[in-house]
Amino acid sequence: MKLFGTAGIRGTLWEKVTPELAMDIGRAVGTYVDGETVAVARDGRTSSVMLQSALISGLLSTGKEVLDFGLIPTPALAWGTREYGDAGVMITASHNPPTDNGIKVFNGDGTEFYVEQERELEELVFSGRFKKAEWDEIKTVKPTDITDGYIGAVLDFVNHETNLKVLYDGANGAGSVVAPHMLREMGARVISVNAHVDGHFPGRKPEPRYENIAYLGELARELGVDLVIVQDGDADRIAVFDEKGNYINEDTVIALFAKLYVEEHGGGTVVVSIDTGSRIDHVVEKAGGKVVRIPLGQPHDGIKRYGAIFAAEPWKLVHPRFGPWIDSFVTMGLLIKLIDERGKPLSEIIREEIPTYYLTKKNVKCPDEFKGIALERAYNALKEKLGGEVKEVLTISGYRFQLKDGSWVLVRPSGTEPKIRVVVEAPSEKRRDELFELAYGTVRKAVEEVMKK
Questions:
Q1: Which residues form the Alpha-D-phosphohexomutase C-terminal domain (predicted)?
Q2: Is there a catalytic annotation at residue 278?
Q3: What would the pLDDT profile of 311-360 be if each residue is shown by its tens digit?
Q4: Measuring CA to CA, how many Å separate 354 from each of 206, 249, 255, 285?
Q5: Dist CA 126 CA 261 (whole Å)
Q6: 129 and 153 in one domain?
Q7: d(Cα 317, Cα 429) in Å, to the nearest integer?
Q8: Is 97 part of a structural domain of the chain?
Q9: C-alpha of 336 from chain center
Q10: Is 242 among the domain residues?
Q11: Are 82 and 108 in contact (CB under 8 A)?
Q12: pLDDT-derived band of residue 415, with 50, 70 and 90 as boundaries?
């Protein structure tokens, strides 16, 4: 059994994520981590207090002192861990539906646990070989409010005042306790929606995909705002609309920041996940930098391995100079600063600086036990059909065919659902549609053939 996925432990309450598991993770973290102090926080889900309480009990049983940060966003927990703790644990299922919950573990420097650390923690959980503190070694829980300190740290890093009019959608999530206050301290004129914490997520689904937040485009136009900022349930993800109410593709946001960092550094390496687009390569290479692609869920691994000046995957941006964790608050602050410093609306900045590519994503249902062989069949068939068009094949998290005209085709197994994901991007809509028809049809056929046997 595997506990950790691409972003910590996550799953349906009672089926995968239980108080018993939370207590065992607390025991395992308390046994595994050197140092005396572990920081703990939670998102606003209905089950988070219950799970946090169980986790804290497990930590206390090993003799650790616990700093209880309460209800805060995940980026704030990472920052607070670096400032005050020897490790940190966040109770959250991020953008998953309200039925789910999860657990993320952080090192003392604010990095999420690396793959090898997660594997070792899993082994400890399954072995049950936990430390047991004697009665006189059991320490206390210290409620610790870090909200103002975190906001102050972000504002110091961004170092900018604004008068932009910003529409903020907090998804009824944990970001609502930080973002409106931070933006107002920057001087922004803030209009908030879905900015009261509610674990039922009554306003919208917490994942900031376009179909869940499309209504914000019309609202932006009606309100005449300069920018729309959207977060997910635990506020590590960020989505953006411009002043015209146009949704900004997540790869475009990544490309904008990648370009900015490479220009500032006069070069450098940018690490991005396997499912990100060619517009990033275009702007980074033009600015004198280099792009390296890594598996999903491992930006912190990529920063460490390649000494990256910036790391990202869709909706998730890491600013290493501030901290080695995904941080949407730094992202929103720097985006506002960029708009002000350029002296142009966001739509114009993007039109002038980021090339347009056309992307399509779609999933093919496939039971987990058939994923491996179906992917292998699809890979062999696509390799033959694409033939001389192929420039390179990346074999991390599935197969990504880099084509000579800048197009690419990705087929990869979902790490959380019984699906194979098909992603295609090309410089023109016609080319994208042709490639997508080929790739999607090939994967569907491969899955059908495997399941017939």
A1: 363-436
A2: no
A3: 999 999 999 999 999 999 999 999 999 999 999 999 999 999 999 999 99
A4: 28, 11, 7, 13
A5: 43
A6: no
A7: 27
A8: yes
A9: 20
A10: no
A11: yes
A12: confident
Other C-beta atoms within 10 Å of 46: how many? 13
Tokens encoding 175: 């970001």
What's the domain count of the chain?
A: 4
430: burial class by Cβ within 10 Å (0-12, 13-18, 19+)? exposed
- 28 and 87 in a single domain? The answer is yes
Q: Which of 271, 329, 332 is nearest to 302 (CA)?
A: 271
Rounded (to 5) percent helix, strand, coil in the chain: 45, 25, 35
Question: Residue 185 in contact with residue 151, Cβ under 8 Å?
Answer: yes
Residue that has been written with the tokens 């998953």 in this structure:
96
CA distance 209 to 221: 19
Q: How far apart are CA 75 and CA 236, in angstroms?
A: 6
46 within 8 A of 69, measured Cβ to Cβ: no
Go through the chain and tell me how many residues it has.
Answer: 453
- The one-character DSSP state at 5 is B
- Per-residue pLDDT of 108-117, as tens digits, reads 999 999 989 9
Query: Of residues 48, 53, 94, 397, which has the active-site annotation?
Result: 94
